Amino acid sequence: MNLHPLLVHFPIALWTTYAFLEVATLWWRRDDSRLQWLKGVLVIAGSVLAVPTILFGVYAEELLEGRAGERLASLIEAHEEMAIATFVLFALVALAYAFFLTHNSQRVALFLSRWGWGVYVQRVYDWKVFLAQRIVTGWWIKLLAAVGLLSLVVAGALGAAVAHGPDADAVVRLVVDLFGRQ
Question: pLDDT by residue (tens digit) across 19-74?
């Protein structure tokens, strides 16, 4: 049973909402910790839910193996590559938000001190939190969100071309002409 079409909409919705909120903060300049938390939860949840979506996508590709024509196989490959690139981009953003939102290194060190790793982990963790704070509170995150949203649109259009054909609509046709392999 192919669950990819059912699951794929959850990471898309979460990542799209995150990206719009992130880009909207260019004009809506409020340093609200609740908004930071919401954006972090959206991108982290989207990344977590993308894992089974990708796995079921690989399974769906195996179901079609040997039965798909050359054109469909090339569209599936382009969709897969773009979807993985989108996942990696949003997963890196999610990782930065995870470090940013859990910036209490003493609590992490205390937890890991049970195994004798507390001091070393605290030093590495402090460095990662510092880097995450620079990324999450800087302009980089907005750029990553915009690029991620564009990548998500391209991956989605290629997926629509696989499911509904390359002439499903004008956007799908344009994306297939630009990114679909001939």
Answer: 999 998 888 766 677 888 899 999 999 999 999 999 999 998 888 777 778 888 88
The string of DSSP codes covering 37-71 is: HHHHHHHHHHHHHHHHHHHHHHHHHHHHTTTS-HH
CB 92 within 8 A of CB 86: no
Residue 127: predicted pLDDT:
65
Question: Which pLDDT score, from 0 to 100, does residue 170 have?
Answer: 92
- CA dihedral sign, ordered 117, 118, 123, 128: positive
Please state the pTM of the whole predicted model: 0.83
| Tokens encoding 148 | 């991620």
Alpha-carbon separation of residue 128 from 37, 96, 102 (angstroms): 18, 8, 11
